[in-house]
Amino acid sequence: xxxxSSDARWALALDVGSSSVRAQLYDEHGVAAAAxxxxxxxxxxxxxxxxxxxxxxxxxxxxxxxxxxGGVRAARAAGLTIAAVGVDTFWHGVMGVDEAGRALTxxxxxxxxxxxxxxxxxxxRVDADDAHARTGCFLHESYPAARLVWLRRxxxxxxxxxxxxxxxxxxxxxxxxxxxxxxxxxxxxxxMDIRACRWDAELLAACGVTAARLPEISDEPLRGLRPEFARxxxxxxxxxxxxxxxxxxxxxxxxxxxxxxxxxxTVGTSAAVRVLRTGPAQVPRDLWLYRLDADRTVAGRALSxxxxxxxxLRQTLLLPPAERLEAELAALASxxxxxxxxxxxxxxxxxxxSERGEVATIAGMAMSTTPVEIWRAWLWALAARIAEAVAxxxxxxxxxxxxxxxxxxxxxxxxxxxxxxRALGRPLPLxxxxxxxxxxxxxxxxxxRLRP
Length: 452
Description:
Blueprint: E1 10-16, E2 20-26, E3 39-42, E4 54-55, H1 57-78, E5 82-89, E6 95-97, E7 107-108, H2 116-125, H3 128-135, H4 144-154, E8 163-165, H5 167-176, E9 180-181, H6 183-186, E10 192-193, E11 198-199, H7 201-207, E12 216-217, H8 227-232, E13 245-246, H9 247-254, E14 262-267, E15 271-278, E16 288-291, E17 296-303, H10 307-317, H11 322-331, E18 341-343, E19 361-363, H12 371-397, E20 402-406, H13 408-412, H14 414-424, H15 437-450
């Protein structure tokens, strides 16, 4: 049970995710305040023209402010004092702002594939293996490094006067007037030297940007809300707000996958397999490596196609209600996989799966094929890809003693979790509450920074 005594310390966690923005209160044990339910606002993305994944930064900032409003109201109603604000957001987003902080471009996210040719051109100019060893990131269209080359080519009118930020930095500047990025968020750009925690000169030159057009790298907390927000949330005006961290790293902390030998599997909008490590930043050859903080890194693989494709499929196939669908899948629990061949790729995949050049395919259908059979076959295909990612991560970082599972897709469907367990050949204990592990991790990390 959460501690509701007057001396308890609470953190407000702001989780800026790909599907929604949520604000929730947690105590130092990572227990959510039952008397202060989460405030949640959905996020909408534009996927037209083909290959796009973008949104208006203003709309996302508005969603974040609305979620914070809800979190503060809940704290007031429950009589809880907020000691810190922890923020997490998705990696690899990028947008341009002018000198006053006004958006010059849309916010482009990890699923945007329009920089594919520019990533190829970047690989021709820079030693890809060496860049991966220095930055922990691949030279790929899902990363801001390649997307900046595309933006330079397609937005030549705005590129020279833009400063490039993720939504976390844009929100921080809106609230505090400070452009600051954490080593965690900077490590997901493909532009930071993962060991030195500074912008990489060779990659900056190759992408046509200078360090002056990027935020400072620091994990020092932000203080001193701008007057309009200090009046809006007086209880937050004097507390430390920590720069946004990458949601995947926070998920490892929030799901309890911190100790050696533990591997985290998160299946939400996208999917990821991650291992949190302490010590020197050694980049595994076939994995990405990002930072949680100055002392810890997270290595792994990610899939762009996960819960997002399941949501599309559920709507497209006009499937039965969730409870009935789960019952039908449970009845088939011991049956072999359906005789359909599925390539579950609706969005451009991340490296190295992207090298396959796949697009969504369903083969082997007949007039007798039912929507539930297609759904079940898609789940099996997705589970196979998750198992493949787990195998690669274990090959690079060592066998896992335990795989800790989290994420909305696994919480929402016990049948899907059972299919993933069959693909892995081992159990998947669930952690978190319906996908709150990222927010929980951000809160725990913020409160840990307050300790003497």
